[in-house]
Amino acid sequence: MKTLQFSLSTALLAVLFCMAPAAHAAPGAHGPNGEHLDGPAAAPATGGAPRVETFSELFEVVGHLSGGELSVLVDRYDTNEPVLGGTLEVEYKHMKARAKFHADVGDYAIDDPAMLRALAVPGKHALLFTFTAGDDSDLLEGTLDVPATAPVAHGHGERRWWWLALLPAIGLPAALLARSRRRAATEVQA
Asked: In this structure, which topology does domain 51-146 adopt according to CATH?
């Protein structure tokens, strides 16, 4: 009986271990010394919110169009240190909008309705970022690529439900293990 319990426990652990996600460098990932792990020209993320990424000698800008705003993060390019409390303006065609800084999140948000409607149209949108922090000021150009089948932006991130298919693979060994333990407990009492 102990052999059956051990093999079921081992099988359950093996199934759970195989389900663990693999570690990988995502687009925009940085190493321990601030180096860019995804190379100089990162491939656009598929399946996520429309994204713009650009950098200069001073700053790196990463923006996502989701949740009813264009959310922009600004870092120092050489140290990857977030630049908080600066001033950011975004220009698109004839429109210009000043971003609101969210101290709680550390991002700069554009929520101008006219600009967001224009940016939500599928296609490539050339953006000009004007960023000022203290004595440093920079102009950065980037392209927001909005695919024709842009995902609905809820601000919740992408959900993956594939793991639900694994529930029977986890549930069956767990149920068998519980059943064998109950049997062993009743045999010991008898």
From this structure: Immunoglobulin-like (2.60.40)
